[in-house]
Amino acid sequence: MVFVCRVLKIMPRYDDQVKQLLKKPSEIVFDTIRQSELIELKLYIDEPAEENDFGFLITAYVDIPQTLWSKDTGTYSTKITKKLEVQIFTTPEVGNYLVVFASNILVKEFVNSVTKILNTVEWFKPVLIDTDRKEEEIRNELGDFRRVYVKDMDDDLVKTATMGGLRLELSSDYARYIRDYGGRLSAVSLIYEGNWMMITFRGIFYSPSKDAESRKVEIIHNLLKLLKEIDALDTSS
Questions:
Q1: Which pLDDT does position 186 carry in this prediction?
Q2: Of 29, 53, 90, 172, which one has the greatest count of Cβ atoms within 10 A?
């Protein structure tokens, strides 16, 4: 089973508020949409947070507004509810990092709901991963890249490229795209603990491995710990 997640950093000032919001069962309206009657958009926490070795895992549901059309009624507004999981890390190594296990679109909807409930956009910072400047350190810690994605090349004809193989850093294409054309590594794929793993500069982790999905909290914790140790995590944006 595939898993994908996005990493955020909870700002210390809002740490208690975020944890109080997500760790206990609740049903909170964060917005409304107008139709023939008012439709409430809610964030739902059905069960208490599940404590694990790395912090707390929360199962949440968020309402997402939808605009639909039918022959009978024309255009109308409604909502759908989507499920996601949120891990709040509390270990000394990566405390206050929050990981949302969901698609990027659903992550944005979740962040929007918490932002409106707390009435501030300052409760978090997106975590970026410096896959470009920390290329060598990431390879040294996590192993050789099996696939790389390069963007922003300084070439009139070629702006992006994807390469796959073994020992890519030794290939002439790798040298040309990154060193000669000044391309940026936007994402890398590698084998981590026996599982295929993609890491993007936007702080998104992806794996198609069933074993990785079953150990996703542990794997993401350990990856964040290693990336933090080599100063590859950026929350300055």
A1: 93
A2: 90
